[in-house]
Design goal:
By secondary structure, the chain is mainly β. A hairpin with a 2-residue loop joins β2 and β3.
Length: 59
């Protein structure tokens, strides 16, 4: 009798979380062998407050 391989779902996703002050925090959502864990990267996306800030992004 042949055995069938069980396919396990393993995924790592980059996600963002909105913070109270309008900044977005980046973290990894890790799902391996039925267990979920999170790893916060201490990286933040700060929104541009002025037009000059927006122009700096295009450099």
């Amino acid at each position: 009798m042949a055995t069938r391989k069980s396919s396990s779902k393993e995924a790592v996703r980059l996600r963002e979380k909105d913070l109270k002050n309008g900044v977005k925090s980046l973290y990894l959502d890790i799902y391996i062998k039925g267990k979920r864990s999170y790893e916060y990267l201490k990286l933040y996306i700060v929104p541009a407050k002025t037009t000059q800030d927006s122009n700096l992004d295009g450099c």
